[in-house]
Amino acid sequence: xxxxxxYRPSPHPGESRPALTLFLAAPRGFCAGVDRAIQIxxxxxxxxxxxVYVRHEIVHNQYVVESLRAKGANFVEELDEIPETDAxxxxxxxxxxKSVPEAARARNLFxxxxxxxxxxxxxxEAERQFARGNHVILIGHAAHPEVVGTMGQLPDGAxxxxxxxxxxxxxxxxxxxxxxxxxxxxxxxxxTAGIIAVLRRRFPAIQGxxxxxxxxxxxxxxxxxxxxxxxxxxxxVVGAPNSSNSRRLVEVAERSGCPRAMLxxxxxxxxxxxxxxxxxxxxxAGASAPEVLVDEIIKxxxxxxxxRVETVTTATESIAFKLPRVLRDAAAx
Length: 333
Fold this sequence. Notes:
flat; 333 residues; alpha/beta; Rossmann fold; five-stranded parallel sheet; Cobalt-precorrin-4 Transmethylase, domain 1; four-stranded parallel sheet
């Protein structure tokens, strides 16, 4: 695991540091689904011992993955990388195609599904619409694990993936069948609303989910960024390059009035030259980024600036998801 970010030494006594305000977004960081997935790996290690196998990154954050690897988690991309074993195999929070648990059962692997319940809700909606005879249009990002998992709930050809409003203008679904749409849970709220508007204009009878598929955490984190973006000269989003919800926060910040937003994984990634003369900085974290990395960045700013932290709260989150039954006794100990 990478060590702490290198910090510039504090100024000598009597040397002043430029004043700077860090506007700290709340809510930020871990959502209930991410917290549950990480708990599942940690509790499996506590109950069954190492190794525990995890298919794909449990969440999209290198710090989290390396921390769990140090505790005995083995990360693989596909089940065929796992030897014959009685050890638990955990599926990531992003969800998996139906073929994955089928393959696990065929090998008599003991698996635990850490799919976020809000992603599972999208899976259920896809199956429900398919059972009604509808062709499903999925709004999402190609090749993202969540999209791969959602498309894998239905037979080939039953789902059409679109990514943009331009795609929605051009999409040509099968004729003679009903239409329904579902979405990835970590999209831009505003972009998705625009895509849905195009679909509804072109296909007035298209059916949507009873409750929107973009999850509460994605919506809340984007709203918090919007509340800060117009007040700051720079916005830092803590998150991984392959984290969809984190990348969307960068886009939202710049569209909402921030001159420059950037995605960083740790304090050591910050391009300090971009903060020369800057006095107001926004700071948030994607749903898979731990708070320790936010604290690390605050410390780095305080080493370079006379930094004051002001928290901007736009929502309070209290959602928690149940753990799988096989791990609940370990959680109670």
